[in-house]
Amino acid sequence: MAITLGRGRQKEIYLNGFLGRNIRLPFDFNELEKQAEKKLGKKAFGYIAAGAGSSRGIQNNLDAFSDYTILPRMLNGSDHPELGLSIFNTQLPFPLLFAPVGVLGLAHPKGDLELAEASKLTGMPMIQSNQASFSMEACAEVLHNTDHWFQLYFGKSRDLVESMVHRAKLTGNKAIVLTLDTTILGWRNKDLANGFLPFMYGLGIAQYTADPVFKQLMEKCDLTTGEQLNARPGIQDAITLFSSYPDSLINNFKTRNPVKAVKTFLDLFSKTDLSWDDVRWLREQTKLPLLLKGILHPEDARKAIDYGIDGIIVSNHGGRQVDHVHSTLDSIVEIKKVIPEEFPLILDSGIRKAADIFIAMALGAKAVCVGRPYVYALALGGRDAVVEYIQNLVSELQITMSLVGCKSLSEINRDCIQNK
Ligand SMILES: Cc1cc2nc3c(=O)[nH]c(=O)nc-3n(C[C@H](O)[C@H](O)[C@H](O)COP(=O)(O)O)c2cc1C
Prior knowledge:
two-stranded antiparallel sheet, alpha/beta, eight-stranded parallel beta sheet
């Protein structure tokens, strides 16, 4: 679908206002977050919004953009600056990807399926989360020919990792993104205060319960040993848990498969001693482009290249893992200095507005990932709101490029910005 962008979109919004039609989504991120908070319950909002510890990492990501200003050049404008690019055989109509976000079912009952619809409508690729609420097979049915990638967590079972990678290929994913920064869950104050971990309720484990290797591992699960998950959740929580496994509620009560699945998942997630040897092994398992997500240190970036990695998503998981973590924008500047010019870097964490995308690209990012903002849009109005959010963000980018004097993405460079 061709969505209206740039000046056309701007005109459309003003016309809607003139005709007395409601403007649905706020344009400001803080307002978007506030509205989503009202709509989402305390636990769901906490899970999405939380940073690790004091959430200083989230702020660091945002503050880093404030260190730069955009310096426009005159008399080089264009009506429709070119926004498209291709990366790893994936077509991007504009330099954005949907960041992998787990447990989207907390934001919307149809979670990942609704996002897949938005991806199809906009052409903006989604990176499917390893912790999705709907399996990659279910999403593939919605996505059809829309390009998409799969994000992998490397658990304790290599057989399971191999199986996930195999399914990712079969379901048409054009790249694998291995997330490195979550070998343990960060210390997230909000989730801890709510005592809420969605996976314990069987939420966000759809990639596992659809997996043949996982099902075999589940069969070996002994519910009488280890942590007792069959304790006594409240009625609502029990229904959530017992509906989480792909079978009827009655069968699930009989087989206790949902409990087995949760227990097996918790046993397997994650591999705390994940190492470069595992990266080497994974590299050997797939011919798909392999990206590492979560790299911040220049030496790790250099090492990734030595291990045959195709690209890096410079990310700190949206400040969810390490409190006071280094900002991704600062990291990209540092990483750029030690890697070959053409090596693809994608910036993730802290993208809130078009100026952020522009600055990230001026500093060398090939594209960026959008995270929390689209999750809030999804919560507020499902697929249509996600499309609207992206339309507005991309329109703002296109208008910014016009006004700064960039006719295409390749004209966004270091000369377009100043360090304060
Ligand atoms: C609720 C939530 C769940 C997430 N789940 C995953 C995940 O399953 N895999 C992953 O690699 N990153 C995950 N992330 C991190 C995002 O991919 C991305 O790095 C982060 O949202 C970027 O920060 P920002 O949203 O502040 O821009 C998650 C982020 C949020 C907010």
